[in-house]
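Problem: given the chain below (74 residues), write out its structure.
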Amino acid sequence: MTLLRGLATITEDDPASFIAPDLLLSFWRPFEADDEPDEEQGYYFSSVLLARPGYYDTPAEAAARLRAVGHQEP
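Solution.
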């Protein structure tokens, strides 16, 4: 996470989840690791979202993005 903080703004929904909206990247785990060394849960992320630009676009925004780069709408 330290490396990512140097590349993009990182937001935290809770101590166990991190989101880099500028990169369309997020990491999620059910809870944060505790001080119990034998317990592996919480040390690893359970889900990762990696999306391409336009993932959150509405249909109108997607059409405008395609027009801007010269693609024809279907």
